[in-house]
Each structure stands twice: as structure tokens, then as C-alpha cells.
Amino acid sequence: xxxxxxxxxxxxxxxxxxxxxxxxxxxxxxxxxxxxxxxxxxxxxxxxxxxxxxxxxxxxxxxxxxxxxxxxxxxxxxxxxxxxxxx
Length: 87
Prior knowledge:
Helices cover 37% and strands 13% of the residues. The protein contains 2 helices and 5 strands, in the order E-E-E-E-E-H-H. The protein starts with a strand and ends with a helix.
């Protein structure tokens, strides 16, 4: 969590990592599950803490999205990923 610059705002933000080479904890580097947090280009993604809190309150099973994304990628496999034309 990072404080906003000294602009008078009294909020904080989160900055999740989305880069080409990120590896999830507990996953081997070649595991396609790592693609859930990868981006073809480095990006800075800022999320206001209050917005994250509202999203979690609206969808308390948010972890299921992450788990479903991993399951989908593992079902698709690397060959399926290639057929989609993605990097």
C-alpha cells in the first residue's frame, strides 16, 4: 500500500504487479497459472483502497475469480494459449 503524493488527498492505494515474468507463490516458473498476473508490457495499476473495499463487499467470494482463472488457464494449457494468438 502506498500513500498518495502530498496533494491533500487522504487516501491510500494498492499497486498490484502485472509484468511479463511474475511467478505466483507455490507455482513453478513454467506453470501457466502465472499468466493470471502477467501483462505483455509492464504496467502500473493503482487501486484506491476504498474502491477495493467496496468491490470486496459487493463480491465477498472474490478469491473464487482468481481460482477460476487459474483453473481455466490450466484447462486451456499452453497449446490452447498459443492458439489464442497471445504471448
